[in-house]
Design brief:
Elements (H helix, E strand, L loop, with lengths): L1 H12 L3 E6 L2 E6 L5 H6 L10 H10 L1 E3 L7 E3 L3 H17 L4
Antiparallel strand pairs: 1-2, 3-4
Helix pairs in contact: 3-4
Length: 99
């Protein structure tokens, strides 16, 4: 019985996915080790040249789905928010140094 309990605890602790739920928001964390093959192929290219219009387009397409029974997809940012933060993100990405 003790062996079964210990093995269940060990298996439960080795999970690479963790969830945090508060009200209507769920955040899921997955360890990078579970995506090791994908990370080996992934390379960041800095500095990146991206226009303000491209940043606006990307920010306006970001959506999330409510975790309710009939959860609808909602936009992450309002159009006004996007117009306010897009110049800042564009400037930051264009100034980023290669590392």
């Amino acid at each position: 019985m003790a062996l079964l309990l210990c093995s269940c605890l060990f298996i439960g602790c080795s999970s690479t996915e963790k969830r945090l739920q508060r009200e209507q928001l769920t955040i899921t964390y997955r360890s990078q080790f579970s995506f090791e093959q994908e990370f080996k192929k992934f390379r960041l290219q800095h500095p990146i040249k991206i226009s303000k219009e491209q940043v606006i387009n990307h920010l306006l397409t970001l959506r999330y789905k409510e975790t309710t029974l009939f959860g609808k997809k909602q936009y992450v940012f309002s159009p006004n928010d996007v117009l306010e933060i897009a110049p800042l993100i564009t400037k930051a990405l264009n100034r980023m140094k290669a590392s």
